[in-house]
Amino acid sequence: MKNKDAYILLKTAQGQINSAIKMIEDERYCIDISNQLLATSALINKANKKVLQNHLYTCVKNATLNDDIDQKLAEVSAVLDKIIK
Fold first, then answer.
1. Which pLDDT value is given to residue 1?
2. Percent of the chain's residues with pLDDT above 70
3. Quick one: pLDDT band at residue 2, thresholds 50, 70, 90?
4. What is the tally of structural domains in the chain?
5. Which CATH number goes with the domain that contains 24?
6. Within the chain, what is the greatest distance between any pair of CA atoms?
7. Which residue of 35, 57, 64, 82 has the smallest Cβ count within 10 Å?
């Protein structure tokens, strides 16, 4: 699995989301819920970083060998535009 690290991070984030849902159902303290959501968001961002790194070192690297680099660079640029709004 190419994105094993990202997969593990997302599975962890999934557990944290389920915990946040349970916290809301249990009417836990709002700040505790918010901290749980911030931790989840950080894991998702970390997973996205892993996926993008994998893309750079596989797809983009291969594109340089096949003269298909412009499309791959445009894809990465579009994702970066979304990240850095």
1. 77
2. 100
3. confident
4. 1
5. 1.20.58.1000
6. 56
7. 82
Tokens matching residue 36: 């749980």
- Residue 11's alpha-carbon distances to 7, 8, 30, 83, in angstroms, are 6, 5, 24, 21
Q: Return d(Cα 62, Cα 17) in angstroms, integer.
A: 36
Q: State how far the Cα of 76 lies from the Cα of 36, in Å rounded to an integer.
A: 30
> 11: which 2 tokens?
């599975």
Domain that includes residue 30, residue range: 4-83
29-63 CB burial, b ≥16 within 10 A, e <16: eeeebeebbeebeebbebbbebbbebbeeeebeeb
Closest CA to 60 of 45, 76, 49, 46: 76
- Counting Cα atoms < 13 Å in the Cβ hemisphere of 73 gives 5
